[in-house]
Design a protein that fits this description.
Chain A is mostly beta strands. Chain A is 0% helix and 55% strand. The radius of gyration of chain A is 13 Å and the shape is globular. The chains are: A mainly beta (118), B mainly beta (107).
């Protein structure tokens, strides 16, 4: 079955960077893109960006442009999201999700809590 | 950017009730509308894509309708496992936007 397994929780100080991984299995990795979506505590869902596992094209929400980088390693079927210059309002659960078409996510990772605190 | 307005933000209902959640887009999104269910501490789950296409394994008591700017998620007979939050999402534009969510709890 489709499985996305994310790396564990992180605690970072303001200004630091975090890199979250998402290891995929159960499907042809290069046939799909991966979206990243975050959810601040008690809040709604916010799309961060997307990467194609086929050609490594990326599309980031303008809000995160310049601070986020998404990469993919086809040899290990793992996608990474790095967020830099962290602020307290970046505290959230970050999800990776398989994109089946046009930013429609049919399978999700378990989420990674990133806490930004001094 | 497209804005998605979901209503109500919360509702209380009983098992067996018919529940309707609406989602309105700030501009036409054709049928590029998805519905997700999220339970506390869990990742969202895709219920319906393209406004009305039920995902495999999702009970038939869930249905979606609408096109253009107005959409509806209906649960025909609420079951105990349906108490959760529901989010709409437009997949028409970039960035794709989510509605603010509807929390369905027990009356």
């Amino acid at each position: 079955q489709v499985l996305l397994v994310q790396s564990g929780a992180e605690v970072k100080k303001p200004g630091a960077s975090v890199k979250v991984s998402c290891k995929a299995s159960g499907f042809t990795f290069t046939s799909y893109g991966i979206s990243w979506v975050r959810q601040a505590p008690g809040q709604g869902l916010e799309w961060v960006g997307w990467i194609s596992n086929y050609n490594r094209n990326t599309n980031y929400a303008q809000k995160f442009q310049g601070r986020v980088t998404m990469t993919t390693d086809t040899s290990t079927s793992t996608v990474y999201m790095e967020l830099r210059s962290l602020r307290s309002d970046d505290t959230a659960v970050y999800y990776c999700a398989r994109d089946i078409v046009s930013y429609t996510a049919d399978s999700w990772g378990q989420g990674t809590l990133v806490t930004v605190s001094s | 950017d497209i804005q998605m307005t979901q209503s109500p933000s919360s509702l209380s209902a009983s098992v067996g009730d018919r529940v309707t959640i609406t989602c309105r887009a700030s501009q036409s999104i054709s049928s590029y509308l998805n519905w997700y269910q999220q339970k506390p501490g869990k990742a969202p789950k895709l219920l319906i894509s393209a406004a009305s296409s039920l995902q495999s394994g999702v009970p038939s008591r869930f249905s979606g309708s609408g096109s253009g700017t107005d959409f509806t998620l209906t649960i025909s007979s609420l079951q105990p496992e349906d108490f959760a939050s529901y989010f709409c999402q437009e997949s028409y534009s970039s960035p794709p936007r989510f509605g603010g969510g509807t929390k369905v709890d027990i009356k």
